[in-house]
Amino acid sequence: MRILLVEDEKPLADWLVKALGQNDFVVDWVDDGRLVLRQLDATRYDAMILDLGLPGLGGHEVLARLREADSRVPVLVLTARDSLMERVSTLHEGADDFLAKPFELQELEARLIALIRRSRGRDQPRFSCGPLVYDAAAKQFSLEREPLALSPREHAVLRTLIQHSGEPMSKQEILERLFSDEQDVRPEAVEVLVHRLRRRLESGKVRITTLRGLGYVLEAV
Q1: How many CB atoms lie within 10 A of CB 102?
Q2: pLDDT less than 70: residues of the chain
Q3: Which strand (E) or helix (H) includes residue 98?
Q4: What is the pLDDT of residue 31?
Q5: What's the pLDDT tens digit per position in 210-219?
Q6: Hey, what's the torsion of the CAs at 122, 127, 133, 135, to 10 degrees?
Q7: Can you give the CATH number for the domain in which 105 is found?
Q8: 24 contacts 17 by C-beta, under 8 angstroms
Q9: CA 107, CA 28: separation in Å to the nearest integer?
Q10: How far apart are CA 196 and CA 51, in angstroms?
Q11: pLDDT at residue number 180
């Protein structure tokens, strides 16, 4: 899952990038609200973590501009101002969830996953495509109710595809979500991993289809 972190406190941002990166998230960080729309134009994000007290352009103004631009990216607001009025006004302005500082990492991760599921029309604590199911809490795939054994990279590619099932994902988008710190990884690596996954899935009623010019899509047969 690719997350945009908008936070001006560098120690907190550095910690979140590292901590979330160890738990299946790829995090891009900006420290100025004026950079948000540019980032969203350049990259497709699964969710945004937004601090309200930002330089350049405050979090409230960022929210207003996002919704004026009809951006549908789910937004989780982080703020030290934990008052009822602040929570209510922020939600009315277009935030999808609210978390006060200080917070526990586990709660932040759980809220992000819930936001992303809801944004894709899924209220259950699992991602699924036909008989293929991914339990985000257990970080486990099952096919036809049987555990699916995958290498770490196969797991990462399939996780990205099931989180966007029915939507085409280009090789570059997959690379950006999986190997952001490995500059030498080439798109051909995705082709190899997809080939392996197709062999893993051939016994079930789910497949990875190539859409010419668009990328790969996971779909039920």
Answers
A1: 7
A2: 81-83, 121-126, 179-185
A3: strand 97-100
A4: 93
A5: 998 889 999 9
A6: -120
A7: 3.40.50.2300
A8: no
A9: 20
A10: 40
A11: 58
77-128 pLDDT tens trace? 987 766 677 777 788 788 889 888 888 999 999 899 888 888 776 545 568 8
Token representation of residue 138: 């257990």
Is the Cα torsion angle 101, 104, 107, 111 positive or negative in sign?
Answer: positive
Total-model pTM: 0.65
Considering 63, 91, 120, which residue would you say is the last residue of a domain? 120
Name the residue among 102, 37, 104 with its Cα closest to residue 64.
Answer: 37
Same domain for 83 and 155, yes or no, is no
Instruction: Let me know how long the chain is.
Output: 221
Degrees (nearest 5) of the Cα angle 163, 169, 170?
150
CA distance 105 to 41: 28
Task: Look up residue 129 and give its DSSP letter.
Answer: E
